[in-house]
Amino acid sequence: MRIGIIGTGIAGLRTAAELRENGFAGEILAWDLERCPPYDRPPLSKNLFTDFTHLLAADGLGDFAALGVTVISDPADRVWRHDELLERFEDRWHIESAAPEEIVDAVVIASGTQPLMTLPNALPLYTARDAHSLRARITPQSVVHIAGSGWLGTELAATIAAFGAHVELWGRSGHFLGANLGAQVDELWQGWCARAGVVWHPEAYPQKLWRGKPAFAEPDVLVEASGSRPALGFVREPVAFSPRGALVVDVRGRVLAPNGDPIPGLFAAGDACDTYLPRQVASEVSDNVPGDTPDLATRNTAYTSTGNPAFPGTSNPARTGTAAGTFAGNNSTRTVTGNAARKFMDTRELLLGGHWRSALASAQRVAATICGLPGPEWLPAPEAFSTQFGHEIALLGSWEKISAAASSPTVTETATGQVFTWYDAAHPSRPQAVLTVDSPRETSRARRQLRIPVPPAARQ
Q1: The three-state (H, E, C) secondary structure of 332-376, written as one string
Q2: What Pfam families does the record point to (predicted)?
Q3: Does some domain include residue 105?
């Protein structure tokens, strides 16, 4: 059996390692998007002016050579299932890149995300190459503007301000961390920004800045940190997409077709995918899931999408349709009937892909499924963590729900920091999300409280 892994970041590396740990002795190939050994991404922003290259192998997370993985140093251009004209390859997968085409029995998509870039002359910070380029442009005398006040934007603002440069930070939503977590959280970050000398603008970044305009200093460097989207431009099969453009997988890591059925031999791990929760699992997360929610196969939402930003080295397929959809790719067009062009629109039934810990857990689930082992008893809650302004931050749970409701948290002082807890309105004793500041013990407790049980039937 041959397995192809698209992406060599934390999710791709851990998928290969988990496969070997589960006894898989077949051939594993991995397509490398950056042509370098797997490294940790958080240090790119928090250690921008020191040593930000931290290899994952140094933490014992795996080494492709030691795992016997063949690494192909080219991004995948197309991933597609067998063609009816190639019967001998039925139920197998084709992976095309600049290297010769490979045919495998299963594909694991672990391609991660790519930054959204909308501002002229703005620089991204997503790869080690981006970090080298950005660091070379900034001096302690620089004026740096950062568009985007999410996790990356705030962490980068803290790092650059500590280096001595003048930093101004813009947030289109008027809030920090990319979500409306309430006035108490915003005030906390505003205080940190003020003490660090970061100028905060609760508005969208202006498209034009003119020298001499009193409200702004013309920047030496403009960094865009306004978000990212899953990097899936190489996918040439009809699949289900979540509202944020991620692949939808079941609790076993199998990519779902638009009708809700698992696609044989196609898996996904990391933040390129969101997990569909079966109704009985979703009810454990929120009692707000309506009892008459239609089944996947009957929820056909019309939409038109231009797809994800272009994946490096590929053209990007357009996805359009209601009852029918056309998927156009390199030298190939596939027409899909039924509700194949539908998105999963109900986020109450989706566990959104998260950061580091979610990548580890999803890789573990995928490897277990491929090796025929039972799935996990628990799914970890989404989690984001950061070091910024001299503080250790963690946010766990369904923060997209509290952001939509704009609910206020309960604030608890700990021996070392603070904890903000948002509770389910229908069940005041049930937390929906927890934000911890310099409180590692409470972070561990929140992980246990917010994990999601998986019924035995869904683990098989």
Answers
A1: EEEEECCCCCCECCCHHHEECCCCHHHHHHHHHHHHHHHCCCCCC
A2: Pyr_redox_2
A3: yes
Residue 390 burial (CB < 10 Å; 0-12/13-18/19+)?
Answer: exposed
- The one-character DSSP state at 44 is H
3-state secondary structure of 296: helix
In Å, how far from its chain's centre is CA 21?
25
Q: CB-hemisphere CA count at 13 Å for 103? A: 9
Instruction: Give mean pLDDT in consecutive 10-residue pieces for the chain, a chain of 460 residues.
Output: 96 97 97 90 92 90 96 94 60 91 96 93 94 97 96 96 97 87 92 97 79 63 94 93 93 94 95 83 46 35 32 32 32 36 57 81 96 91 93 88 70 95 81 94 94 83
Q: Which of 119, 204, 216 has its CA nearest to residue 166?
A: 216
Q: Which domain holds residue 10?
A: 2-115+229-277
Angle between helices 10-21 and 356-370 (to 10 degrees): 40
Whether residues 202 and 262 fall in one domain: no
401 closest CA partner among 429, 425, 428: 425
Q: Domain holding 213: CATH number?
A: 3.50.50.60
235 and 222 part of one domain:
no
Tokens representing 436?
């911890």
Query: Do residue 132 and residue 212 come from a single domain?
Result: yes
* Among 330, 328, 332, 333, residue whose Cα is nearest residue 318: 328
Quick one: pLDDT at residue 63? 95
In total, the chain counts a number of residues equal to: 460
